[in-house]
Write the structure tokens for this entry.
Amino acid sequence: MTRQEFQQFAYSGVLLDGAFGTELVKRGMPEGVSPELWALENFDATAEILRAYRAAGSQILYAPTFGGNRVKLGDFYLAERLAEINSAIVRKTKESVPDALVFGDVSSTGQFVDPYGKLDFDEAVDLYREQISALLAGGADGIAIETMMDLQETRAALIALREIAPDCPAIVTMTFESSMRTLTGVDPVSALVTLQALGADAFGCNCSTGPGEMAKLLPMLKPYAQIPLVAKPNAGVPTLRDDKTFFPMQPEEFASFAPALVEAGATLLGGCCGTTPEHLSRLGNEMKKSTSFFRNAKPLRGVVASPTRICRLAPEEPFAIIGERINPTGKKALQAQLREGKMDMVFDFACQQTQSGASLLDVNVGLAGIDEKSMMLKALRKVVHASPLPLSIDSTDPETVEAALRLYPGRALLNSISAEKSRLEKILPIAAKYGAMPILLPLTDKGIPPTLDDRIAVTEKLLAAVAQYGYTAQDVALDALIMTISANGDAAELSLALIAWAKAHQIFTVCGLSNVSFGLPERQLVNRTFLAMAIGCGLNGAIANVLFQETVDLVYAADALTGRDAHQKHFIARFAQTENAAAAPKAETLSPQEKIRRAILEGNADGIEAALEAALALQETPEKLLNDVLIPAINEVGAKYEKKEYFLPQLVAGAEAMQKGAAFLEKRLTAECDGRQKTKILFATVKGDIHDIGKNIVIVMLKNYGFDVIDLGKDVAPEVILDTAVREKVELIGLSALMTTTMKSMRRTVELAKERNLTQLKFLIGGAVVDQHFADEIGAYYTADPMATVRTARQLAEK
């Protein structure tokens, strides 16, 4: 089945399968084993589940290879059997259900991927390439990438598939919390926009929530969906009954949500944790009552995205200002920093432009005498931590463009593709491969077209070229090709005419604003005047210096005047705010203490030591900086996380900046301060559970708050936990579990402590499946997230 055939099939309404892990447990799978190996070695039980789902009506079945990547199999010392296990499971699955489609199942490694974590992006791609190759070798009809919470890791898996099998169908689902974001803060629309451009054939959500919550999330995706949508919910929120995982939603209730899910946009429906063949049978019966399924005839196009934010570039949308400051042209200080490999100014420019109202940020590091590709990657890693805005990758070098688009964790704007032969042949395929939105520059090998008709002809040639890669006129931007009027007095008029032509053809136009005034005095006046004229002709965006607030003010007024700001709400909000607010201090006027605070809030680990040195030079003591600046700053990060203003990447980045700052100060603290006793806390992922990403984040936060953390790792037996606690004289113990099947290990650990009369021990428990009710039931403290763990641990330590 080709990708096109799969999508046609999916739009007809398709029943997927349901939970597999809980069904394996019912058939005897014990704790602490590899589910993949157990499923393979006990395939009679596995085949029974597969046939039951097929009998229930499931048309696509996921082979039980969920944790079949090298990292997860490595936890069971099975990495060297990866190809054998994955291929054999798919082959046996197809033999068991020969009349169904079988998709190889791929999921998370449990590690954060560059630029948000330590796992190299290409290494992540290789990990998935290895597993997917084995699944396809076994005969998989397609690949399901599921239960993902990190967009960058999801991109790695999808890129791996597309590089192996360009025409293999791919279903991609992520797990969204009740906040309508993943645990790492990924916005569902951002994920859809990024992944459908990258080559997903269906996108949606699985796990985490029940069907009611998913029916609320899917409508967010509908306006932007160019591919079928998927819903694979849990059978409610799990609890423990007699040390067994229990999902409360019965088949009839679960199936009753089918009309709502279909109405919300889902065309592929299935079940996740706790669902059974009976759940799927009833769900399928309800699906059959639907006479039609959602297919978006006019999806909103021209959307770029970061993991947390989208920006639609379309004539009817508000004017887009693309921040131009991260560009060494004419900036000697930035040039000097780039030559030294420093990123301080890049980080500051990203922060400043974000705060000043930019819609996107342009990133250009082209400079003679440097390695542009490595410098671009270094800059990207810095900018994605400094700003939530989508990015424009600005380069003419194919290697730099490919490296940047490969690493960028979203859908980028690409500045730009001209009609020059080499650019069309080399850069256009790269843009298409990574799903970037290109800016079309009407320039040829002969140079700048001299007349309007020539520029229109080149533009039409470019539109025809990108159409061969699936782009429409609404999914590109057109550079208005602004040249300086000091060299050609007709330059502005010619560009305005091209803008008017593009407006008539509903093509988004953008320009490099500062070009028009090059070589003239009062450049900002010329720029603003031309901008007003261009907007009047239909200009939709500009690469401009957003730090000139007069330019931003003009844009807000223009949006209000042209009807792109409904009820003038953005205009009113901006000026109601600015009239009542003092001007924000410039970076160079900030005190060292404020620079320290901002380094933690912005996750700028590279900048914190210089700020601390400056503060120490002003006779501040290390103790005072730690207690009065660093700790309040990390508290502020935690508060923003709890308010959902920050998400895990910002929390981790802030914690790393705090950790670097604290380590810097530790060397200078007085003996009296060094002698203070830290509270010990022991942490472990419980027996049978091999997930530790959440635990590791909590540990980083606890260390920042002065705790001495003993990390026992994952899959730790109750006896080991308690023996260590006694030996190390620890009274606080943190237990983590991600799977419902391992919650009972938490209970057993607490019960064993009571049996041993270790009444001094206090247990903090957390994890995706844990709640307050379960904590109360076993006599532990429930901590919902990293900051809640810190808060509870501090309260218990004080007692």
In short: The chain is about 50% helix and 15% strand. Residues 622-642 form the longest helix (21 residues).
